[in-house]
Amino acid sequence: MSETTTGGGRRISRRTLLIGGSAAGLGAGVAAFAARDELARMWWRLPGVDKPREAGVVDQPGAEWIAASGANWRRADRPDDYVIDRVVIHVVQGGYDDAVRVFRDPEHGAAAHYVVRRDGHIAQLVRELDVAFHAGNRAYNERSVGIEHEGFVSEPRSFTDPMYRASARLTASICERYGIPRDREHIVGHVEVPGTDHTDPGRHWDWDRYIRLVRAVRVARTAK
């Protein structure tokens, strides 16, 4: 992306100039701030500033890429347009293959970023920079990464040690990528999303164990 140097030597990106210049023309006060915020979310749609994307690239090392239907997520440029500050934990109420199948179905209307299998295998279906329709709440969709787990909320045996450990490593990596605190305020269940009618991950999901595992993971922080 091109940059401009100010008189003081500070470098300003083309994106900053596009957003700042457009917002300045709208006047001061609340209206300007609102317009600035909206422009920040839309900047990448302008000609020449589209963020490069490579098909099949995953955010989580070792994950398998399986693309969800484009009807089940929305293109974005997170965290530049929407801050990511939550991880939402889901349970499929079915198997791994069931989750993958419905997330690839354009009629389903929903998909999570990741699906974790009982043996710890992880599939990524939506890029983290995009908004997946997983939480049943638009604001939470925009601010979170959704992780689906195969199994049933009523069956404690659904949640295996390999699943917990793989999911914890994934969550810890997401937290490091976006500076998310590794606590229960920021790592939440689907049931805790405002306005949801879901109950997952359910009473058999061991939150104490999970948060301990997430906090125990040491990963190198990478810029997003």
Can you offer a commentary on this structure?
- Residues 73-202 form the N-acetylmuramoyl-L-alanine amidase domain.
- It catalyses: Hydrolyzes the link between N-acetylmuramoyl residues and L-amino acid residues in certain cell-wall glycopeptides.
- The chain is of the alpha/beta class.
- The protein has 2 domains: 12-50, no CATH class; 64-216, 3-Layer(aba) Sandwich (Lysozyme-like), CATH 3.40.80.10.
- It contains 6 helices and 10 strands, in the order ββααβββαβββαβαβα.
- It has helices spanning 14-24, 30-42, 96-103, 138-143, 161-178, 207-216; strands spanning 3-5, 11-13, 64-65, 73-74, 86-91, 114-116, 122-124, 131-132, 144-149, 187-189.
- A 6-stranded mixed sheet has the order 3-7-6-9-5-10, with helices on both faces.
- A hairpin with a 5-residue loop joins β6 and β7 (122-124).
- α1 runs antiparallel to α2 (30-42) and α5 (161-178) packs across α6.
Layout of secondary structure:
Layout: E1 3-5, E2 11-13, H1 14-24, H2 30-42, E3 64-65, E4 73-74, E5 86-91, H3 96-103, E6 114-116, E7 122-124, E8 131-132, H4 138-143, E9 144-149, H5 161-178, E10 187-189, H6 207-216
Enzyme class: hydrolase
InterPro entries: Amidase/PGRP_sf, Amidase_domain, NAMLAA_amidase_2, TAT_signal
Catalytic activity: Hydrolyzes the link between N-acetylmuramoyl residues and L-amino acid residues in certain cell-wall glycopeptides
